[in-house]
Amino acid sequence: MKALVALLLWCLLFVLCWPLALLALLLWPLVWLLSLPLRLAGITLSAVFAFLRALLWLPARLLGGRAAAAG
Predict the structure, then answer these.
(1) Average pLDDT over residues 36-54
(2) What CA–CA distance (Å, rounded) separates 25 from 14?
(3) What is the mean pLDDT of the chain?
(4) CA end-to-end span of the chain
(5) What share of the chain is helix, strand, coil (3-state, %, to 5)?
(6) Are the C-beta atoms of 24 and 12 separated by less than 8 Å?
(7) What torsion do the CA atoms of 41, 2, 20, 24 make, to the nearest 10 degrees?
(8) Is the pLDDT reported for residue 69 higher than 60?
(9) Cys-Cys link to 65, which of 23, 42, 44, 60 (CB 3.0-4.6 A)?
(10) pTM for this one?
């Protein structure tokens, strides 16, 4: 669905201002390549924070904190 919306928006841009639409079409792979390291950094930071959260909650899980609260 996202691809269809993007295609329709690009077609609208092509009708309104075709040089800008062609420039966007040519620059899109470069923008995608530049965003890859940022995505990898985001995935890495998300994994680090998930690990730290699991590490901090480990004593409570070992002592049965959730089972005592639920029961």
Answers:
(1) 96
(2) 10
(3) 89
(4) 44
(5) 95, 0, 5
(6) no
(7) 30
(8) no
(9) 60
(10) 0.56
Residue pair 11/24 in contact (Cβ under 8 Å)? The answer is no
Q: Say how many residues make up the chain.
A: 71
**Six token digits for residue 46:** 């998300």
Is the torsion defined by CA of 27, 30, 32, 35 positive or negative? Answer: negative
Tokens found for residue 60: 């409570």
Q: State how far Cα 54 lies from the chain centre.
A: 22
Residue 38 has pLDDT above 80, yes or no: yes
Average pLDDT (20-27) is 92
Structure tokens belonging to residue 22: 């062609």
pLDDT band with cut points at 50, 70 and 90 for residue 70: low
Distances (CA, A) of 21 to 3, 11, 14, 48, 50: 16, 8, 5, 39, 40
pLDDT (average), residues 20-24: 92
